[in-house]
Write a structure and sequence with these properties.
Elements lengths: L1 H8 L1 H38 L7 H4 L27 H5 L14 H20 L3 H23 L4 H15 L7 H26 L6 H14 L4 H22 L11 H26 L3
Helix pairs in contact: 2-5, 2-6, 5-6, 6-7, 6-11, 7-8, 7-9, 8-9, 9-11, 10-11
Length: 289
């Protein structure tokens, strides 16, 4: 009880604790981002391939916890002391302790990003149930962002529970009322579904994946239908700027798809933290207030 009282009475302590928790969660998210797509691919193959067509590596257990994390170059098992978020990377000089192969900078960056965003959420919401939900949403959006960047995939195993979790929180009107949450989930899915089929009808091409529909439906379930126009506009603007920049400065091929999920996730997180201000500004522009 004294510890809970300390969390309630000391915002600095609470924010610091949540930031450290975010660093630890970020380390776990690195595992999920790498392993979940492989697990999904193995499940798909298992449904269609005979065991005789699979390699011993594909048959061996592979989950979020098994096998232990190893260096991809020398297969050195990562010890606990080598797995301290950010600090281990700096202490090791960004290299494997055994073979000295370079460790990807993305691992500490994801850990630091998760810690930073978690701290901002704690600062914004304080010691409250809304903070718990906001942290779960933040961590899910980070995971979805990097999986989509790597594989152009938004797993149902994350987007669908995220949708239902938003509705559960809003049973108690944590972020919006229940009716707005349900309508937001429906409208979020249908809006991009209509865009998808309209674009396909006109061009004969698929402009986005079904995972994008489900992610926007989840964001609608969390924030309600009034927030959807702002999320769509913000994600589209950021996606357009980044896409054009990639084409101009990195000679990105125009026919190579750019995942839309990261921009939806970024817009959703901005709506989480500054949603009320965004909604008021949007309604002011439209003359509704």
């Amino acid at each position: 009880m004294a510890f809970i009282a300390l969390l309630q009475s000391s915002p600095f302590f609470f924010i610091s604790l949540v930031s450290i928790l975010g660093l630890l969660v970020g380390s776990f998210l690195n595992v999920v981002i790498y392993r979940l797509p492989i697990m999904m691919e193995r499940d798909w193959k298992a449904q269609y391939d005979d065991l005789t067509n699979r390699t011993p590596e594909e048959i061996a257990p592979f989950t979020l916890s098994v096998p232990r994390s190893r260096c991809p170059h020398c297969h050195h098992a990562i010890t606990a002391i080598e797995n301290i978020p950010v600090m281990s990377y700096l202490f090791l000089g960004g290299k494997c302790r055994k073979c000295k192969a370079a460790i990807s900078k993305r691992y500490p960056l994801i850990e630091a990003l998760t810690g930073l965003l978690s701290g901002i959420v704690a600062w914004q919401f304080g010691f409250d149930w809304a903070c718990l939900g906001a942290l779960l949403l933040t961590w899910s959006l980070i995971t979805l962002t990097f999986i989509d960047i790597d594989h152009h995939l938004l797993p149902d195993s994350i987007t669908l529970p995220l949708l239902w979790l938003g509705i559960v929180f809003n049973l108690f009107a944590v972020y919006t009322d229940l009716s707005s949450s349900v309508v937001g989930a429906i409208a979020g899915y249908l809006s991009l579904w209509l865009v998808f089929h309209g674009f396909k009808l006109v061009t004969g091409k698929e402009g986005m994946g079904y995972g994008d529909f489900k992610l926007l439906a989840a964001l609608g379930a969390w924030f309600g239908w009034l927030m959807l126009p702002s999320i769509i506009l913000l994600s589209s603007l950021v996606g357009a700027v980044v896409g054009i920049s990639l084409i101009i400065f990195r000679q990105h091929e125009r026919n190579v798809p750019i995942p839309f999920g990261p921009y939806l996730a970024a817009a959703g997180w901005i709506a989480l933290v500054w949603g009320d201000a965004i909604t008021y500004t949007y309604l002011s522009w439209t003359g509704a207030v």
